[in-house]
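User: I'm curious whether this sequence folds into something compact or stays loose and floppy. Could you predict its structure so I can see for myself?
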Amino acid sequence: MATGPALFSDIGKKAKDLLTRDYITDHKFSVSTISATGVALTSTATKKGGLSTGDVGAVYKYNNILFDVKVDTESKIATTFTFTELVPSTKTIVSFKLPDFNSGKLDIQYFHNHATLTSAVALTQTPTVDLTATIGTPTFVIGAEAGYEQSSGRFTKYNAGISVNKPDSSASIILGDKGDTIKASFIHHLDESKKTAAVGEITRRFSLNENTFTVGGSYAVDSLTVVKAKLNNHGKLGAVLQHEILPKSLVTVSSELETNALDKTPKFGLALALKP
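Assistant: Here's the prediction. I'll summarize afterward.
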């Protein structure tokens, strides 16, 4: 596979992940294991409010084919086939959910030393088509995406973005929501392990004349423990404590507080992921 610019979906992703990943408000328990034949099995139980759900997933890789299937407590089956290098420099992804026969999707990704192209088509009688393209290098990327709905003959989305990446930092600007929002973000890693970092993000929504500014970061207390925090200009404060209790097994405690409305009950989340 060519080593070139990132996909459009990866523009701003590092900053977004630091500000969103592990900030949970539900209770989640998962156990993962690998069988002797190489099948990775994961069982997950989630409780959100008064609703409890669960699912069992299996992932198996054979040569250049990755097979992923998940069955949940509502008897829905989500299946994904990923073919790497089916055609040189491409990745082909076929996904569908049963019993919803209109959920099929075909995604083709093409990678070049100086460009990427992706095409995602819904496998229905009146398909929607999503296209993305980027040009540049691993250091500098500029790209755009568009979605077209055949049944209505209109564009469902058109966005553009630019990203500058260095080994210890990344900056990006994304014009999204059909030009209604512009988002700029910057992340800087402060250690070689990239567990300690600072991030800032500002979003401007023109239709609402509204700005949202968020700052956050993560800090590695030691090799097993990481704390995270974030705060935006609307007073929403989030915090995360994550500890590796066993090799590759994590316990995560998260909370969210409205500092402008201290009478509201804070939200708490707890996740335990075991990988024996």
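Summary: The two ends are 32 Å apart (CA to CA). DSSP finds one helix and 19 strands in the chain.
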